[in-house]
Design brief:
This protein has 659 residues and is of the alpha+beta class. It has 20 helices and 9 strands.
Length: 659
């Protein structure tokens, strides 16, 4: 639907978001009732959330001609100044050190009491600064800071309070209140929370009913429920696609150095739950996240929900690597054969990422001339290969007296730590010391209109330069997230070569979590204490590097660059989240990990499937109103729930895809 030509055109992020945007669970048991519950949830979302799209886009009768896009408001500027043509410019608070962008022109007033008017659309994602300049001599007449609401109508009045002093004011008046664009999120949350509560109550009532009516049958029922929860027969069939998360003692319980009074074959469900949680959020944000800005990747510095999940997946991959290789190496499996398997597994991941789910398919048949080489699975493949090889080379069995080492995950693994420190040093040297043509040394900015437009072609600094030199401009991502807000024009890939260095460090930090689980098996307090110490230590490093700010630090948190502060911050979060899930799922057993546990058991299949079938029904369909957050949110949540349901069905049928 096109807008009226008399409206001013806003060159803000919203209007190009769909063109330039980078793409990138509910039952406590494993019973078949989960299928019915998920189906009911899908129906509830359709009934309660989708109709909001009609309600949230209604306009007042006298403004029905205004056609809004998402995250937009209408602004009518009234100019009462005689003989003074004006130019209106805007600047987003989220755009660091950016130039003002022209919004449009406002003619001079027609006469006393007869102001001229011009209408524009403005963004509602972040607060804006509006600036009015005289067209004749470009002097600034007025500046106003305001946070607009979605689909609201506003008027900006330019008035001259005194002809003698030429004092000009520019108040903003609300003509029509904006809609509550976050109401669909609240409705969706209540639906999911309600279903979870009903399941919990239903499980409790069922258990009490069995106890009351069949007290003599309680023990068999408990045994059956325990078997359904642990499902060890199924889990013995699984060698996780990126490292098994089986507890270390699964194959080494006969070792006298490990306590034998615990259940030795218990799988750490918390790891699969954490992996599944990351994957579910990743699917949701990849499908659009309801088109809310905080469910999409940050333009440059900073964090959104979408920026959390990929590093967490990398982190838990590192944790699983050490747990899976530990038992194999302790049995004396030849390291050469393990190395060959590692190479083959990494190659498979890389080829799946390049050939099967390459985003270039969106532009037609795959062309080798413009094939994008980096990607999510490609980075996972490279990271997995390096970290797994480190584990194979420097593996050491758990010593009998672990208490003699203050930090065993460091002391016993010092050769690998030397490699990681050297790798991070290399990243720092390349990032801050590599000369980049026509760019300042150590540049970390987005280019475009950032840094007051001084370095428009320096997007990503050394990271972007290395990718363009090594892979070629046509083989990396053409429209990075910085293109939306910073108007950068240089190709840049967030999964590029230099960022892979820090991806390896991130996975290695996850591997340390696995070492803690191995060395302090069944010592829950010790495990959680060390998770907490690692989290605080990494958080402190992040605070120093960023100066607790988004843009002012030495090394800002930046997902596009995979900066050092980014991986320390996300590793801090990962240790804390894993601590909580470990305590709730594996220590206290208050929660089975469902529904996130199911996609966590089949992560590669679910990830590849959601990428391949993302444009097919029922994961996507033509919307009644494509400019409605409510309808996008309902579609994205339904698609994500379907993949959770599919992963449950695969789990119940004992179907697991491993590579």
């Amino acid at each position: 639907m096109k807008r009226r030509t008399k409206k001013g055109k806003l060159t803000h992020a919203n209007n190009r978001e769909e063109k330039a945007g980078y793409k990138k669970m509910k039952c406590p048991s494993d019973t078949k009732q989960s299928a019915l519950v998920l189906s009911a949830l899908i129906a509830l979302l359709g009934v309660y959330v989708i109709p909001l799209s009609a309600q949230l886009t209604l306009s007042e009768p006298h403004r029905r001609s205004v056609v809004y896009k998402m995250d937009e408001a209408s602004l009518t500027v009234h100019n009462e100044l005689l003989n003074e043509n004006l130019t209106l410019s805007w600047l987003s608070d989220h755009c660091y050190q950016c130039l003002f962008q022209k919004l449009g022109a406002i003619p001079s007033g027609k006469g006393p009491g007869l102001p001229s008017s011009a209408a524009f659309f403005v963004s509602t994602q972040h607060p804006l600064t509006l600036q009015l300049n005289s067209t004749q001599d470009t002097r600034e007449l007025c500046r106003v800071h305001f946070s607009f609401g979605e689909h609201g109508n506003y008027s900006l009045w330019i008035k001259n309070l005194s002809n003698l002093t030429q004092k000009i004011t520019c108040p903003i008046v609300i003509d029509k209140e904006p809609i509550n664009s976050y109401l669909p999120i609240l409705i969706a949350f209540l639906v999911y929370a309600g279903v979870a509560i009903l399941i919990a109550i239903g499980g409790f009532v069922m258990g009490q009913s069995v106890l009351f009516f069949f007290p003599h049958r309680l023990d068999p029922v408990k045994k059956i429920m325990y078997r359904m929860i642990t499902t060890m027969e199924t889990e013995r069939l699984i060698n996780s696609e990126l490292g098994s998360s089986n507890q270390a003692s699964e194959s080494s319980s006969r070792d006298p150095t490990f306590p034998a009074h615990r259940v030795a074959t218990s799988r750490l469900r918390s790891l699969d739950t954490f992996r599944g949680l990351s994957l579910v959020i990743m699917i949701f944000v990849n499908y659009g996240g309801g088109r809310y800005w905080f469910f999409r990747h940050e333009s440059w510095n900073g964090l959104t929900v979408a920026d959390l999940v990929f590093p967490w997946f990398v982190f838990i991959m590192g944790t699983s690597i050490t747990l899976s290789l530990n038992s194999v190496l302790k049995r004396g499996y030849p390291r050469v054969k393990l190395f060959r398997k590692t190479v083959w597994r990494s190659l498979q991941l890389f080829l799946i990422g390049v050939i099967i789910i390459n985003p270039k398919y969106c532009m037609g048949p795959l062309s080798w001339d413009s094939l994008r080489i980096p990607g999510v699975l490609q980075r996972l493949a490279f990271t997995y290969f390096v970290v797994a090889v480190l584990e194979i080379l420097f593996f050491k069995a758990r010593p009998e007296d672990i208490t003699m080492f203050l930090i065993p995950e460091l002391v016993l693994y010092w050769p690998a730590w030397i490699f990681i420190v050297a790798l991070e040093t290399m990243w720092l040297c390349l990032t801050f010391l590599l000369p980049v043509p026509d760019c300042p040394l150590g540049y970390l900015g987005p280019g475009g209109i950032g840094d007051f437009g001084h370095h428009p072609n320096c997007t990503g600094g050394a990271a972007g330069y290395i990718d363009r030199w090594l892979l070629g401009e046509k083989h990396i991502h053409q429209t990075p997230t910085s293109h939306v807000l910073y108007l950068s024009t240089m190709p840049y890939d967030p999964e590029g070569v230099l960022g892979s260095f820090n991806s390896i460090v991130m996975a290695f930090l996850g591997l340390q979590a696995g070492k803690i689980l191995l060395y302090y098996k069944d010592l829950h307090v010790q495990i959680m204490a060390r998770f907490l110490i690692w989290g605080f230590m990494l958080g402190g490093i992040s605070a120093i590097l960023t100066k607790c700010s988004r843009d002012q630090g030495f090394i800002p948190v930046n997902k596009n660059l995979w900066s050092f502060s980014y991986i320390t911050t996300l590793s801090c979060f990962a240790f804390i989240v894993l601590l909580i899930i470990y305590y709730v799922v594996d220590v206290r057993r208050w929660w089975s990990g469902a529904p996130f546990f199911y996609p966590g058991m089949n992560s590669i299949l679910v990830y590849v499937g959601h990428e391949v079938f993302q444009n097919y029904f029922p994961f996507k369909w033509k919307m009644l109103n494509s400019q409605s957050h409510a309808e996008h949110l309902a579609q994205n949540l339904l698609a994500t729930s379907i993949w959770v349901f599919i992963s449950y069905l695969l789990y119940s049928k004992k179907i697991f895809w491993k590579i």
